[in-house]
C-alpha cells in the first residue's frame, strides 16, 4: 500500500513536531485525520501490522 505523505517534520530546539505539509495547509488537518482513520481501520481488520507491535508479541 503506497501512502501519500501528508505531514512534514519541523525541528525545534529539543524536539521535533509533525505538522500538515505546507502545501496542504488549507485542508491538511482533514486529510491527515482521514488517512489516520483509514490506517486504524486496516490495523483493526488485521490487514496492517505495525513493526513495533509485531516485535512486542514475540
Structure explained in plain terms:
With 58 residues, the chain is an alpha+beta fold. It has 2 helices and 2 strands. It has a two-stranded antiparallel sheet with strand order 1-2. Strand 1 and strand 2 form a beta hairpin. The longest helix is centred in the middle third of the chain and has 17 residues.
In short:
By secondary structure, the protein is an alpha+beta fold. It contains two helices and two strands.
Pick out its properties:
single chain, 58 residues, alpha+beta, 2 helices, 17% strand
Rg, Cα atoms, Å = 14 Å
Relative strand content: 15-25%
How do the strands of the widest beta sheet line up side by side? 1-2
Strands, total number: 2
